[in-house]
Design brief:
Blueprint lengths: L5 H11 L33 E2 L5 E2 L2 E4 L26 H13 L5 E5 L6 H18 L5 E5 L6 H10 L2 E3 L7 H7 L5 H24 L11 E7 L6 H15 L3 E6 L17 H16 L4 H6 L13 H8 L6 E2 L5 H4 L7 H10 L7 H5 L12 E2 L6 H4 L4 H5 L10
Parallel strand pairs: 3-4, 4-5, 5-6, 6-7, 7-8, 9-10
Antiparallel strand pairs: 1-2
């Protein structure tokens, strides 16, 4: 095989990184290079965005250190037995690429993951060396997100948090049974042990910052994880429960969901078809309900059908509202914030505006309509100064009335 140049490696390893969904830059600490020292910058609201060929929105140079791997996870395109072209960066090459791309104004940060080569410790050393060199040798002030390896020495995983804004430790699959079946070389206890150790280190870092003003920051944007959806038999109800447990036990910033994508020469234990991408979208919406709308995990799970799957044709909040119609209609002029957030079609910003506006006057249906994108979905579920949905609320076919209409897309 001919020796690859840097551009060739970049083409292979950037494409191989597209399966990592957890590359958001939200929550980064504010840094800049004022005063003439250092290079790069980041802000608390995130950095500039780019789009990958498959439509995913990213904001970082997103690459693998290598797509070679000593593990043979059935669902992974980079597994040991996969017939795919391999490439590998050195730590120095990743550093040079990051700085070069930044100077060209292509990116403002780095997302770095890797397959496992030689050993978990060796691979983790290379990943940490990239972040160390950027921070210490080149005074890089931009955003760095590192994927860590649970089997690596805890000291190496801790070193990643010293230099990175955010670290990720992938849970891989929603259930232990699925992990044992599809990735037998990986261990759920080891993965969770690494996540728990990172949680402790982050909390210790925050405590040190409170006590000592110049204490170094440790993974200031926290840790996240990612799980593959549709590769095993886990239902949406199972996945919501698993995500909720991860948030509670490990204080995660985000759980990312990645729809399983069939791979060449796939193992016979994998499904032949990928799950609908809408399923991934519905799981993100359910995640949002738990994080920002005050829904308990059991309530989100209750929105699922009898087979444990969230409806694909309507969002989870509307599905919950249709199942628990006794909680509605909600009076927009009297109801507390918690109940307003449960009204289908009302987002957090709309609820905030309603609470502010109703202090000065009674709100009509038209007033509420001006605070949201569509009033059609709202009408059966709320009471306003000039509106009471007596007939709508009692209709047996309410589901058909509030479901979004199908629209034929045009090719041109």
């Amino acid at each position: 095989m001919s020796r690859l140049d840097l551009a060739g490696k970049l083409g292979i390893l950037a494409d191989a990184a597209k399966y990592d969904a957890s590359c958001a830059s939200s929550g980064a600490q504010k840094r800049d290079s004022k005063g003439g020292k250092g290079i790069g910058s980041t802000t608390g609201s995130g950095i500039c965005h780019a789009y990958t060929p498959d439509g995913r929105c990213i904001s970082l140079l997103k690459i693998l250190l290598t797509n070679a791997c000593i593990f043979d996870c059935h669902y992974c395109i980079n597994r040991k037995s996969s017939n795919t072209r391999r490439a590998r960066f050195t730590a120095k090459e990743v550093v040079e690429l990051t700085l070069d791309f930044y100077r060209r104004n292509y990116i403002e940060g780095l997302f770095l993951s890797s397959g496992i080569i030689q050993s978990p410790d060796y691979t983790m050393e290379q990943i940490v060396e990239v972040a160390r060199s950027l921070r210490q040798d080149h005074h890089f002030r931009g955003y760095i997100h590192l994927k860590t390896i649970p089997d690596a020495d805890p000291a190496l995983i801790h070193a990643a948090g010293v230099h990175a804004d955010r670290v990720s430790i992938n849970i891989e699959l929603p259930t232990r049974e699925g992990l044992t079946r599809l990735a037998p070389e990986k261990s759920e206890p080891r993965i969770e042990g690494a996540m728990d150790g990172m949680k402790t280190a982050i909390l210790d870092g925050k405590d040190a910052r409170k006590r000592y003003r110049h204490a170094p920051r440790f993974a200031p944007s926290g840790q996240s994880t990612q799980m593959i959806v549709g590769a095993d038999a886990a239902t949406d109800r199972d996945i919501v429960g698993r995500a909720s447990g991860l948030y509670q036990r490990f204080a995660l910033k985000r759980v990312y969901y990645s729809a399983f994508s069939p791979i060449p020469d796939a193992s016979a234990v994998l499904p032949l078809k990928r799950p609908p991408l809408m399923r991934e979208h519905r799981l993100y919406q359910s995640d949002w309900l738990m994080r920002f709308y005050g829904f308990a995990p059991a309530e989100v799970q209750a929105a699922a059908n009898d087979n444990g799957m969230l409806p694909l044709d309507i969002d989870p909040k509307l599905a919950w509202a249709l199942k628990f119609r006794d909680a509605f209609p909600v009076d927009v002029n009297r109801a507390p914030r918690e109940m307003l957030l449960r009204v289908p079609g009302l987002g957090t910003r709309a609820v905030k505006n309603i609470l502010a506006a109703r202090r000065h006057r009674s709100l009509t249906l038209a007033d509420v309509g001006r605070m949201t994108t569509s009033i059609i979905k709202l009408r059966p579920f709320l009471i306003a100064a000039d509106w009471r949905p007596v007939a709508l609320a009692d209709r047996e076919d309410l589901s058909a009335l509030v479901k979004p209409k199908s629209v034929q897309l045009e090719l041109f």
